[in-house]
Amino acid sequence: MTLSAIKPGKIVTIGEILVDIMALERGRGFLEPLNLRGPFPGGAPAIFIAQAARLGHAAAIISCVGDDDFGWLNIERLKRGRVDVSAVRVHEDHVTASAFVRYREDGERDFLFNLKRSAAGQTEIDQPARALLAECAHFHIMGSSLFSFHLIDEVKKAIEIVKANGATVSFDPNIRKEMMDIAEMRAGLELMLQYCDIFLPSGPELVIPTEAKSEPAAIAELLELGVGCIVVKRAARGSSYYDRDRAIDCPGYKVVEADPTGAGDCFGATFVTCRRSGLPVEECLSLANAAGALAVSRQGGMEGISTLREMRALIANAS
Amino acid sequence: MTLSAIKPGKIVTIGEILVDIMALERGRGFLEPLNLRGPFPGGAPAIFIAQAARLGHAAAIISCVGDDDFGWLNIERLKRGRVDVSAVRVHEDHVTASAFVRYREDGERDFLFNLKRSAAGQTEIDQPARALLAECAHFHIMGSSLFSFHLIDEVKKAIEIVKANGATVSFDPNIRKEMMDIAEMRAGLELMLQYCDIFLPSGPELVIPTEAKSEPAAIAELLELGVGCIVVKRAARGSSYYDRDRAIDCPGYKVVEADPTGAGDCFGATFVTCRRSGLPVEECLSLANAAGALAVSRQGGMEGISTLREMRALIANAS
Asked: Rounded to 5, what percent of chain B is helix, strand, coil?
């Protein structure tokens, strides 16, 4: 079972490929020795693009990893998932990015990143990246990738290339509290909205880039700014779609939560990929909700991606 | 029980403070998810200086950590161990160094470091470091700290300051195969020998910086170069001391091996600290062997440091 009418051209993303190291015990932060498990392949853009490829779409990522086990683990995993890694540079002098993740008792997470000075921080629009962008029909950006002025500049370059070629652009702010300390990120967030055909915020991320105090006001402001459509992710409560003509809500699917890492990335990739294959908005929302629910039910970010068959089975069981 | 005649002045070292993340399963490298445990406070210079402080000597480290849990974990641990951390900078824009460690079936270890671009890579002889060096009576350098030209330059600055003040210098090459790829390290290794009063190689590290093909030839070459004395660490087989007049062997102590991380650092700190308190070479070797054996018997690098009482108890039990 694949999407029947995928359009030509590639879905391309840019940003961090990293390993996740997960604490097996709940609590606060990393101030004492803990039982951990890892490395798990990860990084929001990497999970996004693996999910798009899993749905059968031509998919590629522009990134940079170190010449170390953490880098090769990720490259091999993406290759096995049929993601084009021709624009993933293997850097000889920077190490692969990493994220230590620990759950708090209340379900919130603490992260400890090595990102800015890692290989991922060296991602750039080099010749292999330009070759990919020439084939790009849709370009996706994660807010988590805007962690330095260098990255924001490279993302901007990429957007200008693909926009000139008529590609569409989606943006998932994917804000983590540890990252909003980075002044660059706030500037980057605002910049991305100017180019955005599909905006994919999670709950409160909808209002953050606006002057608005309420959801409806934020939606109006964003559509006025030129954003094509807005898809609000509400985790277990499903999702909503807004454009100038329509407001559509779609309830979520119940699953036993194992690990929410990557759920939003799988949601976004499924919505974008299904829209590109011409499915109606309602069905795209439903499949994206199913993708998010399946991701939540599995341990590990990259482990959360699923097939169209699995998504349809979840939907069929729920109805 | 403390060393009876510790001389005034501080033992000071410089170099990486990091966290160790230990794989709990043996095998090769980090290409798949594993059970891990960490963060453990570590870094060869940090373990060395904690052992010197544990023996009652005034001890300080010049280093740099990130403003993150891994950094604070280390600072708190060093403070509790009475190490002077006045010259440990907390960097706002680089993360604390880390080392993933996995044992192979044959007992060898694979390391995956984040060092050069970490906060530890930003270590420098700033004002707090200069204030410390003014009080320095003995300065210790780990080869593992010479991982960039920047670090080599800073170490050189420090040595010149302390040598001008009449302090002695010890050097432990502490070479890891992953590090010899760094061209800077080989250059740094040769430079250090020129300043070295006490050279502390482990087995084969003795010949690496020389033209010699045998141990006796290497010893002759090093003494000729001006190295004051050479203490060769032979792990379970004990240690040997060489200067222009003497060659002294001291057998090791048998313990059940739990984790050799830090054993050489504890050995070196104990030898240096005991020599400074005026103990005869034979006793210094014996205590240093005991320190190394105790370190090997415990999991975790920093966990391996021990008191003089524990060392003397091990020696008494063995005789």
From this structure: 40, 25, 35
